[in-house]
Amino acid sequence: MREHRAPSKLVQTVQALFGSQDDVFTAVAGKASAFISCHVNDVVVVKWSDAAHIVGQIKFLCKISGACWACITIWTKLPQTNMYDCSGDNYMVPLSDVVDTCIYGMRGVVAFVVPPRAVRA
């Protein structure tokens, strides 16, 4: 992450969430792995558990206590293939849990997402 000090409101939110008074930094882009870069507003696939992946949009990237995190709005899968409801809850996930970025198109609050070939989200 090419980081800079986070705005005070974001600092307060992240510190309260993590129960830490450590400095908070933010960035517009970060490296999830050696081969995966992601940016704010990217749609990504995230490893949610050992067997599940989810799709969501990055709202912000931050670093606290030496760890990099992504705030992601989780998108709900619709019955149609590769269709998602874009209105969801926000979750903080380790940046290293981002599997890949996705190609997507939006119409209102519904998105058509093309997941990476190796992932069934």
Strand portion, in percent? Answer: over 45%
CATH architecture: Roll
CATH class: Mainly Beta
Helical segment tally? 1
Task: Tell me the name of the CATH homologous superfamily.
Answer: Bromo adjacent homology (BAH) domain
Mean pLDDT score, rounded? 91
Distance between the termini: 26 Å
Instruction: Characterize the largest beta sheet: strand count, sense, and whether it forms a barrel.
Output: 10 strands, antiparallel
Please explain how this structure is put together.
The structure is a single chain. The chain has one helix spanning 8-18; strands at residues 4-5, 24-27, 29-31, 37-39, 43-47, 53-64, 67-77, 83-85, 90-94, 98-101, 103-107, 110-114. It is mainly beta and 121 residues long. The strands form two sheets. Strands 1, 2, 5, 6, 7, 8, 9, 10, 11 and 12 form a ten-stranded antiparallel sheet that branches. The protein starts with a strand and ends in a 7-residue tail after the last strand. The mean pLDDT is 91.
Helices and strands in order:
Elements: E1 4-5, H1 8-18, E2 24-27, E3 29-31, E4 37-39, E5 43-47, E6 53-64, E7 67-77, E8 83-85, E9 90-94, E10 98-101, E11 103-107, E12 110-114
Antiparallel strand pairs: 1-2, 2-6, 3-4, 5-6, 5-10, 6-7, 7-8, 7-9, 8-12, 11-12
Primary descriptors:
121 residues; mainly beta; SH3 type barrels; 10-stranded antiparallel beta sheet; 12 strands
What would a concise description of this structure say?
This protein has 121 residues and is mainly beta. It has one helix at 8-18; strands at residues 4-5, 24-27, 29-31, 37-39, 43-47, 53-64, 67-77, 83-85, 90-94, 98-101, 103-107, 110-114. It is built from one helix and twelve strands; from the N terminus they run βαβββββββββββ.
